[in-house]
Design goal:
The complex is a heterodimer of chains A (about 120) and B (about 110). The termini of chain A are far apart. Chain A has no helices and eleven strands. With about 120 residues, chain A is mainly beta. In chain B, a hairpin with a 5-residue loop joins strand 9 and strand 10. Chain B starts with a strand and ends with a strand. The chains are: A mainly beta (about 120), B mainly beta (about 110). Chains A and B meet through strand 5, strand 6 and strand 10 of A and strand 6, strand 9 and strand 10 of B.
Chain lengths: ~120, ~110
Amino acid sequence: ETGVTQSPTHLIKTRGQQVTLRCSSQSGHNTVSWYQQALGQGPQFIFQYYREEENGRGNFPPRFSGLQFPNYSSELNVNALELDDSALYLCASSTSRQGRSYNEQFFGPGTRLTVL
Amino acid sequence: AQRVTQPEKLLSVFKGAPVELKCNYSYSGSPELFWYVQYSRQRLQLLLRHISRESIKGFTADLNKGETSFHLKKPFAQEEDSAMYYCALSGGYQKVTFGIGTKLQVIP
């Protein structure tokens, strides 16, 4: 059984560009959540995907979007990057039934995004 | 709105001393509370959740609905407890709200 993996590890972009971050969920997990963790802060919930559909969203603008694939892997896309988007982006997978995810979330190592 | 407050960014204690990491929450319904831990160079991982009522690595946490608190306690701190601790709340379905985190430093 493999754990949650994320790619790339680090990424540097310039303001206005677009970025795609990837996450492979743990074997057997059907739910993926994405978090943004700014320096010195706790993780902030961006959104969650369950069975390939968005299943809840935090206070992030529409330029943050995502996808979940049939194998339950996921992508986070951010358009029109801003300097404040610089952060560690965490992916977490879990199991859910009917979208209610009270089960333990297993986190990936994160992708460090720097926007210049 | 749901909110988690961890008032201390850094807590330093001596080895063998008791530890209490404070967490207060704001939520109108019945939340589920968690403590997550991140050791140096490791991933964020679940330490315990209030519905389990377990003691993990000597840590316990009791949900006090009257005081809206979920403080994490351990009677005798060990050096290996040094880590970043996050209190988190799930108010329903999808959204998990994390606190800002408390860095626990156990002094040998």
